[in-house]
Amino acid sequence: MAVTLEQAQRVGYTCLKALLRFAFMVANNLVAIPSYILYLIMLQPLRVLDSKSFWYIEGVLFKWLLAMVASWGWWAGYTVVEWGDDVKAVSEDEAMVLVNHQATGDVCTLMMCLQDKGTVVRQMMWLMDHIFKYTNFGIVSLIHGDFFIRQGKAHRDQQLVLLKEHLEKYYRSRNRKWIVLFPEGGFLRKRRETSQAFAKKNNLPFLKHVTLPRLGATQVILKTLVAPQENGTPAGRDAVIKESKSKGLQWVIDTTIAYPKGEPIDIQTWILGYRQPTVTHVHYRIFPVKDVPAEPEALTHWLYQRFIEKEDLLTHFYETGAFPPLQGQTKAISREMTLSNLWLVGIQSLAFLSGGMWYCIFQYFYHCLF
């Protein structure tokens, strides 16, 4: 079939836009990430004198970095509509966020939709696959105190021990509030077949839109961060909770991400913007942690039920284009998440000004020394 002039122009425009967006992303990373590192190096004396203030400033810088990532999608027309419970109501409490995992764009979506949730972004901890440690953002996550988990049976037990130690060392000493994890342990397209085979063997429901979650990390987080009085399980270190005057983990936020027609956005699309403007839908359900069972068998059943519910939610969404109403509601209520373009431009401007400042400083010292 012959290509019309209009089609050729459209393809050319898309390619040019993708090239310009990629160049902007590279420049953005080259100024923002080194600036983040250099600011924190400069503030090391404050870390010794007043650790709380140091981690507060680090959290603000971290939130700004995530806002830059969010802006790449926002300016491409990739927006978010939220459904279900209003998580702003628990933004100052400690919470564990359980998310289904379809593609790399899930992380970008969360970076965007959590920006307007108070202090959540600057006080959150991420659990992510160890491969992300070797990306451009890996050094930022390492400094912030995120945990990189290695998948596979050979590493599972050791990784859970390391996770427990990591939480005890960093979670409350850095005043973290929310911890985000993907319990499925991988992307839907990679785990679906294995999960369905396991479900068939163990007489569990057949799932198409999610996979059966893994218990390990969820159980470690609950055991380590939940205060003893919440669900009857002693916390990993009661002294840590008492000294920090923390109430412990208060909530579990079950988060379900849905893409139109079940076509997830990946990081390449988020950066290059070659896909048409897309609305991603995010559904929240909040559970008090005291209602989450502590025993492994009961916890496994509870976690499976959450993902069976996710399956039902996603099935309903793909059939109707909307999530069903919460229990007690007659009609589902959605909220369009918004970001301020002025705020995003301000953060981007600060990043490039910071990059220029550090360049001038290094040039000055270079000429002084050589």
Describe this structure in words.
Helices cover 53% and strands 13% of the residues. With 370 residues, the protein is an alpha/beta fold. It has one domain. An eight-stranded mixed sheet has the order 4-3-5-2-6-7-1-8, with helices on both faces. Helix 5 (138-144) links the parallel strand 3 (124-129) and strand 4. Helix 1 (5-42) crosses helix 13 (341-369) and helix 3 (51-74) packs across helix 13. The longest helix is centred in the first third of the chain and has 38 residues, at 5-42. The protein is globular, with a radius of gyration of 22 Å. The model is unreliable at 230-243 (pLDDT under 50). InterPro entries: Acyltransf_C, Plipid/glycerol_acylTrfase. This is Acyl-CoA:lysophosphatidylglycerol acyltransferase 1. It comes from Phoenicopterus ruber ruber.
Write down how many β-strands occur, each being a DSSP E stretch of 2 or more residues: 8
N→C terminal distance: 63 Å
Strand order of the biggest β-sheet:
4-3-5-2-6-7-1-8
Order of helices and strands: HHHEEHEHEHEHHHHEHEHEH
Percent of residues in beta strands: 5-15%
Shape: globular
Overall tally of structural domains: 1
Round the mean pLDDT to the nearest integer and report it.
90
Percentage of residues assigned to helices: 40-55%
Helix/strand-derived category reads: alpha/beta
- What's the story with the biggest beta sheet? 8 strands, mixed
